[in-house]
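Q: I have 280 residues here and want to know how they pack in 3D. Can you give me a structure?
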Amino acid sequence: MNNTSATNVIEKFSEWQKELGKAEGTVKTYVGILEKFQAWLHEKDSSLNQISANDVQLYMNHLEEQQKSAGTIEKYLAAISVFSRYLGRSEIITGIHKKEKIKDTDIPDSLEETEEKRLLLEVELEGNLRNIAIVYTLLYTGIRISELCALNVEDIEINNKKGTLFVKNNKGELERIIPLSKEVTNHLKKYIYSLSTNQSALFVSNAHKRISTRAVQYMLQKYNVNPHKLRHTFCQKLINKGIDIQTVAKLAGHKDINVTKRYASALEPNLKNAIDRAFS
């Protein structure tokens, strides 16, 4: 599609937004973002009518490389998300990773030790091997829910009692490697042995299709937790055990070290306490 065609689709999108009663300022912002996105796509010999999830992810990475703020990147992705709905292709923004918007004072909500033990006990008593494996994987690896749903059986490597999880991006390229603890290795091993031999997706629904993020969220609601809280618990536990911030950031896949530093904020009162006890 040439630039003229791209202009036409943006104009039609603009009219669609106005018909929906969107504010003029909002429509103008969306159009401006789409024009910039189209200019970037044009350099890559692509166009708005042909965009894929990979294009969107690469553009988010490009914005981050341009030192755009998390708020700006979030605004760009929101505009592209609305445009994807206009195209009837909402799947192109599924699982997109972007710079996380944070406040320096925010300390992520995580599970207390007693809450964690209760969660694991509840899910194990229920006896569903898939759900047990999902909870342990989220809690003991800190992967994002989109990364969990994208896992294939081949992304888990188990040798005796040791295991490794390979996290890949939308292009199938390796992003990071996470060693697995004995507990999560054991539960993944039991679950994988129960699967059909010709199954590629690691976690599947009752309809034998790759599990969706919504299905995982719904399952976790039974235990009064969400994927974000399990991820935060993973990071907070590492920080509490004295693991350095760079290592935690690498395991969690944080591109911005400031995201990881939030977890260290929770330790500041304890550090002051330690000095008071030692030198008072």
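Q: Anything worth noting?
A: The chain has a mean pLDDT of 86. The two ends are 72 Å apart (CA to CA).
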